[in-house]
Amino acid sequence: MAALFFSQEEQQQIIAAIREAERQTSGEIKLHIEKKCPSDVLERTKEVFAFLHMHLTKDHNAVLFYLAYEDRKFAVFGDKGINDKVPENFWNSTKDLLRSNFSNQRFTEGLCLAIREAGQQLKIHFPYSSDDVNELPDDISFGQ
Q1: Domain that includes residue 56, residue range
Q2: Which residues contact 105 (CB under 8 A, 6 or more apart)?
Q3: 0.90 cut: is pTM over it?
Q4: Is residue 143 domain-resident?
Q5: How far apart are CA 139 and CA 104, in angstroms?
């Protein structure tokens, strides 16, 4: 089961990184983990994004981190509101950070660093405001 890939403590570290990142931005960040990616990784990420209703945020500024650990695949996908404002290579540094950490078996550390970086990047275009509402749960979602 995908929930067993990370210990409870590691899951709490990742959730804390999501909360920390979201304190800087009105953007929403989510992590989805599954064992295997049943299709092209970007297509699967888009399917999960829709399944989790991440496209329903007010400003269309949600970001999904997707990890299929047995297949060693991952993706970072931002909604239309983000992609309309940022350059095409906006997520490259985040993906590079993940890749370098994952290749050294530092999955928790890599995700926490990349999630915090995403928060830093998002705050430029979607700064946090005092009336911001947390539109998506900060927990980790798990697939098969």
Answers
A1: 2-130
A2: none
A3: yes
A4: no
A5: 25
